[in-house]
Write a structure and sequence with these properties.
Helices cover 26% and strands 26% of the residues. Strand 1 and strand 2 form a beta hairpin. It comes from Hypocryptadius cinnamomeus.
């Protein structure tokens, strides 16, 4: 069981805090000879697998590194176009690492804003007045849990579907936010949270939750 990440969204839908706590490793590195037996294409300025799943490499996985050097979007470490490099027989054999691409800061901002909109739509679609909005989204690989405070701040946790104690964790995060962000004289409401004590106590709370420990008084 694991907790993957934490998001804090202000009442306007802006992302004011994000922490990646644990990322499952899905990277696969293989050495290939020419011609490459995978079909690659450019998607959102990244080179991804379009066809030809094999040995842990899946459709949608991105090229993360070539010959041990990290790839920057569509370009190799020394600035060459990835598709052109892999289309040249002289560059083989070649070692390629595939995996799910890492979300950029802009993508995280966009996703937080999208969830804020979905949350509002969910509240409006409710047949009953005073709906709490979306509290959980479930997939086969993770669950997204959301807790909205009376002031409109949303705390979201992405976790393994088997992870327990998330409701208590969300309220613990709210408590940490109140103690170490709101009481910080240098913090402005609705603005990004940059507080070392907030970071430290949040990480400790995630570790306790992963071990299914209780949040007792003073914890």
């Amino acid at each position: 069981m694991a907790i993957f990440s934490v998001y804090v969204v202000n009442k306007a839908g802006g992302l004011i805090y994000q922490l990646d706590h644990y990322a499952p490793r899905s990277d696969t590195e293989k050495t290939f000879s020419f011609p490459l037996d995978l079909v690659l294409r450019l998607h959102d300025e990244r080179v991804v697998v379009a066809f030809g799943q094999r040995d842990g490499i899946r459709v949608g996985h991105a090229v993360l590194a070539i010959n041990g050097a990290e790839v920057n979007g569509r370009f190799t470490a020394d600035g060459k176009d990835v598709l052109e490099f892999l289309g040249n027989p002289a560059n083989y054999p070649v070692s390629i690492r595939f995996g799910r691409h890492r979300l950029s800061s802009n993508e995280k901002l966009m996703l937080a804003s999208m969830f804020h909109s979905l949350f509002a739509i969910g509240s409006q679609l409710s047949p009953e007045v005073g709906s709490s909005g979306i509290e959980m989204l479930e997939t086969d690989t993770f669950k997204l849990h959301c807790f909205q405070t009376l002031t409109g701040i949303k705390f979201m946790v992405l976790a393994d579907p088997r992870q327990t104690g998330i409701d208590a964790l969300l309220r613990k995060i709210y408590e940490i936010y109140s103690d170490f962000a709101l009481k910080n004289p240098f913090y402005s409401l609705e603005m990004p949270i940059r507080c070392e004590l907030f970071d430290q106590n949040l990480k400790l709370a995630l570790e306790v939750a992963e071990k299914a420990g209780p949040f007792g008084p003073g914890s």
